[in-house]
Amino acid sequence: MDTIASLFSFITTPVSWVIVQFHSVYGKIFGADTGWAWGLSIVSLVILIRICLIPLFVKQIKATRAMQTLQPEMKKIQERYKNDKQRQSEEMMKLYKESGTNPLSSCLPILAQSPFFFALYHVLNGIATGKTIGVIDDQLLASARQAHIFGAPLAAKFTDSADKVAQLGATLTDVRVVTAIMIVLMSGSQFYTQRQLMTKNVDTTVKTPFMQQQKMLMYVFPVMFAVFGINFPVGVLVYWLTTNVWTMGQQMYVIRNNPTPGSKAQAAYLERLQKHVTHHGKTRSRREKGIVKAIVSKGRDRNEFERKFINGLTKAGLAAQADGAVVKSDSTTVVETEDGTSTTTTGGAVPKRQQPKRQSKSQRQSGVVKAAGEPEPKTSLTKSDEPEDAKPSAAKPAGGGNKPGAGTRSKAQSGQRKGPQRPKSPSKK
Question: Rounded CA gap, 409 and 419, in Å?
Fold first, then answer.
């Protein structure tokens, strides 16, 4: 660990300078030699670093959303090459390259703050060995060696001997109890952060290598913290516990307000949003309008929770518009067509498919077929002056002979087969 920390010695001076500046502020409040002054200085260092890493965290969220949009393509690759794991991995990497996404983007905040972590370890290790480092001079070194956090010196470790702990003015029992509690809290907070990410903020309908990676990290990181934590000084444990608590709170905020589509967190968020919009009868913020607009624009690609959200608004007499606004629809019904578009009808009437008008029996017998939309032929109510005998008789079939069963009808019935008909069975005389 000392060798790795020495690799990041180039930022030891900036880190020690930040700690000294915070110590000068807290020392006036709690006392220069107290554990509160030095401990809060380390906590403030963590907060400052994490604030600087917020843009990187936003980039991480965008990369995670990009991974979510690729899940349908990932599912197709899995089904196509389910018997060839090597080809499946090659196609996945090709898809990542074409889309410009990186499945390791979730590790960026950890990698970015690693230099500060090892630089702080280098500073605290110098305090433990009695060496001045960075901007920490002899006076600050003596003050830091006297600082205790709940009875444990700032530079003490779980694996230190009783003699070394006694030189720092503490007992081995106090050091091991404090460090053990902090290691358990550190590992537990890391496990909870990864678990809520896997159980609440992941679309479980598609299983991808990204999900397997996150599941592995959920168990690997806590074990790593527990194993390496016994070699961390108390000050480093304070640093890492603070950054884990920050990460956990930050993750909870993202899951609650910006959940992954198709996850349980999205279902809970849309349920809260539906109640809020139903209560006020409209979307009240730009964020709410953006979410409603995104759901409406998806059309048929909406997931189960998004369809439930739209249906809930419809039942409440509200209609989501394409611009993200929500309006009352007392006499308006929004109907989603097969192609995913929405049509609006008044009076609550749903447009139906137009069917051709059914013909009457007399029309079918007379062979008059009326096209849809044409007016019915007018019928004269006056008797014709022409006698019935003078009316043209029914057309005879070619050949001039009368076929049996031809009948006296002038035209074939609707739907009857054309041409000579099969004669009926002769009746017995």
Answer: 14
Determine how many CB atoms are found less than 10 A away from the CB of residue 293.
Answer: 16
What ranges in 201-345 are assigned the alpha helix state H? Answer: 209-229, 234-257, 264-280, 286-298, 304-315
Three-class SS state of 152: strand
pLDDT band at 222 (very low <50, low <70, confident <90, very high): confident
312's CB contacts (< 8 A; 6+ apart) are 274, 278
Long-range contacts of 220-227 (CB under 8 A, 24+ apart): 221/190, 221/191, 221/194, 222/187, 222/188, 222/190, 222/191, 223/187, 225/183, 225/186, 225/187, 225/190, 226/183, 226/184, 226/187
Q: Global pTM?
A: 0.67
Q: How far is CA 387 from CA 193, 211, 366, 378, in A?
A: 100, 91, 20, 21
- For 139-175, write each residue's pLDDT tens digit: 898 888 888 988 899 888 898 888 888 888 889 999 9
Pairing of the two strands 332-336 and 342-346:
antiparallel
Contact (Cβ atoms closer than 8 angstroms) between residue 350 and residue 364 = no
Beta bridge partners of 346: 332
In the DSSP assignment, the letter for residue 136 is B
**Contact indicator for 151, 138 with CB cutoff of 8 Å:** no
Rounded-to-integer distance, Cα 183 and Cα 108, Å: 23
Q: What is the DSSP string of 306-356?
A: HHHHHHHHHHTTEEE-TTS-EEE-SSEEEEE-TTS-EEEEETTPPP----P
Burial code of 365-398, b = ≥16 C-beta within 10 A, e = fewer? eeeeeeeeeeeeeeeeeeeeeeeeeeeeeeeeee
Residue 328: strand pairing partners = 318
Does residue 206 sit in helix, strand or coil?
A: coil
DSSP class of residue 388 equals: G
Angle at 224 between CA 220 and CA 230, to 5 degrees: 160
> What's the rounded Cα separation, in Å, for the pair 143 and 152?
14
**Which residue from 285, 302, 180 is spatially nearest to 230, judged by alpha carbons?**
180
Q: Between vectors from CA 17 to CA 15 and to CA 23, what angle results, nearest 5°?
A: 105
DSSP, residue by residue, 67-131 = HHHTHHHHHHHHHHTTT-HHHHHHHHHHHHHHHT--GGGGGHHHHHHHHHHHHHHHHHHHHHHT-
